[in-house]
Amino acid sequence: MENLDAARLQMAFTLIFHIVFACIGMVMPFFMVVSHKKWLKTRDPIYLKLTKSWQKGVAIFFVTGAVSGTALSFELGLLWPEFMKHAGPIIGMPFSLEGAAFFVEALALGFYLYGWDKINEKFHWFTGIIVGISGVASGILVVSANGWMNAPSGFDYIDGQFLNIDPISALFNPAWFTQALHMTLAAFTATGFAVAGIHAYQILKKRNIDLHKKAFKIALSFGAIAAILQPISGDISAKDIAKRQPAKLAAMEAHYHTEKGAPLYIGGIVNEEKQEVNYKIAIPKALSFLAFGDFDAEVKGLNDFPADERPKVAIVHYAFQIMVGLGTLLLFAGILFFITLSRKKEWFNKRYFWLLFSLLAPMGFIALEAGWIVTEVGRQPWIIHGIMKTKDAVTPVPGIIYSFYMYILVYTSLTIAVTWLMSRQIKALNSTDHSTPNTTSL
User: Fold this and answer.
1) pTM, to two decimals
2) Which residues of 244-256 are buried (b: 16+ CB within 10 A; e: fewer)?
3) Number of domains in the chain
């Protein structure tokens, strides 16, 4: 295997794993503090037990996210030295600020974990909020760096040199807001539905129903709101991509030919050799309207771009279809949840309700992974859009495939460890003892 292929596989593999740990670590603190607040108001021991369990989950994913994220940061220099040589001075600021946010998160988490019965109750609860806010800030800062790769700014590119560097402009690049908004909502959607799905399954199995119903409502409230808002951020992102990265839009929609009043394709099988999409549902003029707000607007096709500057159409199109399809499914599931709340819990007694949300548990993360494939593969062959190609950034040092094998081992071990730890947490939650636990213990 060539170095370029091995490096891209390694980067893709580690991102696929890390993004799960990172998103859960960003979002779960908010579930924890809501449960904690309910305990402070009601002194219901069920909420205390739930809070203590979720804080352990936050700690577990904080550690695994730190480990997987650190490994990922080393990869940038290991796999893409030419990229880091030029990009490092430009996008160093978001990474430095992300490190500061991570440090604040670690401090706040320490206060929260060990502050039970030792510090003021309100301040203790507030440290949990700091954990959540700093975690989201870390995610936004990292996404800002990725946004810069899609919309490079904050420098002048003259004769192959990166000059007049402005780190602030690089930080607030044209893509940072749309990507950060879309990614943050995706993290809340994926984590909310995943956590709610786990608790729904426990209810389906009739295990500690009262506790799991409380947990389900907290988690899905976040997930459902994010899922309902997600199409708005998706529309903003799509319009931004249409202007800045028309080749990516063409790959997402599998459009090979430039045309006015372009149709929107739903589904379909891409034939890259014949440059056509078979068995699709075409909605006339819908793509032109969604991308530019004009039913007769011109949408560029892939044939308008040099052959060596086009992304792989099939994988981008399929990933985009999966992301949109699952996002739509979760949107309707979120609406169903709020309708259920308004019907005075009538559907909460139906077995099929809990079965549905159990099955939906992984769907948010599948959609999230598909969205990252669209973002990263859709930018190819560029590592810095329009400036540097990925093949020109890869390390010349041979043997990257062995590094890839090592990362597979490390991340698989992390996954096994986290799965085992979380299964222990679920078993502990299923205990029917709701007496007030020792609040000084982890």
Assistant:
1) 0.90
2) bbbbbbbbbbbbb
3) 1
